[in-house]
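cache lookup: miss for this entity combination. No prior model stored, computing from scratch. Input as submitted by user K.M.:
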Amino acid sequence: MDRTRSASSTASVSKAAAWPRISAAERARRCPGFRVVGLDASASQLAIAEQRCTALGLTNVTFVEADVYSTGLPRNTFDVVHCRLLLCHLQRPEAAIREMADITRPGGTVVCCDIDMHELYTLPRTAPFERLREIYLRRRHMDGLDNHLASRLPALLSAAGLRDLEMAFIQPVAFRGEEKRLWEYTFAESAERTLEKGLVTETELDALLEAVREVSRDDQVGVVQARLPVCWARKPTR
Ligand SMILES: C[S@@+](CC[C@H](N)C(=O)[O-])C[C@H]1O[C@@H](n2cnc3c(N)ncnc32)[C@H](O)[C@@H]1O
């Protein structure tokens, strides 16, 4: 992101959520000379992000409730268009990236930070965590979501006409605290849908969730957070 600071305005597409690091607020905080637009399809997620920005005293951010496939934002305008943990929820990520590229100004940058859940595990490895990850990935596949999106990001950005591609990975390891419990909560939240799909019995799922809570309580075991690929590329000037 530092490379793009010399520009004067920033759009942050789909940046608002209940997750601890709320992207619109982060962009606005790190880029005080920019105007940031935070976009999400969910009014409640936007409200959370807005509260966070207000609490941080950030005045350079506004929020838009819209669909990333059709943002309604002006074409060829924004210096940086950034999304985080959005594409993994979409059935048509390529269409979302095309819209992001459309609203970026020529010479501007599109940044996509997503997730590779194959790279989610504990240190040392624990069987219940491995099993829950496998079930979670199968459920996502049944929902029509692409578990291999991370490896397709460079191709998707190129297909949207973007150039000068760069990529990096982020992968923290948590040994304690709420960060560590993120996947415990995620698996628990998706339990009902997992049962509906018939991927596991209620008895097995209860035992797996209890085993993961046990991992959370054990400071000797680390949760290697799912790897976050960050891929960015520039919109050609002509
Ligand atoms: C896991 S959250 C990520 C939130 C935030 N970007 C962050 O990094 O903290 C996924 C977000 O994508 C939003 N979302 C899902 N489908 C969307 C769509 N078609 N258009 C815009 N936002 C969408 C959801 O409302 C949710 O807030």
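stored under new cache key. The domain at 67-234 is CATH 3.40.50.150 (Rossmann fold).
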